[in-house]
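Late entry, written up from scratch paper. The run itself happened at the end of the previous shift, but nothing got recorded in the book at the time, so transcribing now.
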Amino acid sequence: MESNPEFYPILLAEDDPISRRLFEKILVKEGFAVTTVENGRKALDLFRQQFFPIVLTDWQMPEMEGPELCRAIREENPNRYVFIIMLTSKGSKDDIISGLSAGADDYLTKPAHYAELVARIKTGIRILELEKSLKAAVDEIHLLSITDPLTGIYNRGYINERLPQEIRRANRYGRDFSLIMCDIDHFKKVNDTYGHLAGDAVLKEFVRCLTSVIRQQVDWAGRYGGEEFLVVLPETDLDGAMVLAERLRKTVQSCETQLDGCSIPVTASFGVTGFFPQGRKDVVKPEALLQQADTMLYEAKGAGRNQVVGRPLVEP
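Output as recorded:
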């Protein structure tokens, strides 16, 4: 099925008013949304304000010529590809090579045959569609690579990559930062009593409980290993993290996994730590924060499980 031209607005840079109006008329007739400007400088300024997947540019224009505009658009490095067609009366092979080397995808000699122009634009749309599909596939592969396949939250690899970034950001901007490490109590007993399928169901329900409480788009959770999970809390002080951990504990305690007519209750233990960078002599490292959270979790389990224990990270 052919793509709707309305999804591919065109930016047309042409200094000749007659040519500009003729190009615009034929493209609008084909269903394209067209924005026109009379020189390369205005085209670049407009492109920086609004993304255009297709750009038609004359070669010779005042203020900024077509090849310079092509290079500038490529240097903008947008997240989406831009298909650029150069329109010019220059027709030698050297000119064609020069235009393509500047960043143009295609080349059309003026006076342009309008049916040919439309055909080349539609070819460009097919290329853009392929680029979009490829990007979607790459994004999906990346998501799979950082996601725990059972629970759907981030995996250990992603934790190892992103946690240091979050800590560096907190250090750099002097923001509170907290971390919760939690572990399902007596999880081995769940597997031994109900089976591993039930254990998987409990893990998924546990994660659903966790993610229903934390702030979306700010906090994030990851599976650290087995039945152990991390909840990362940017711009959250220790008191706030302790309050949240208690809410998580109560939420988990109130959630029961339903499986084959059986109701499987679980509880969890929570270790909480955090730091405030200003005034610290050291730069906080992920290993130290994880070790402190793990120590707090161990104390929570030692206190009888289904507990929240927390202390700030102290300087070495």
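The radius of gyration is 29 Å.
(Scratch paper discarded after transcription.)
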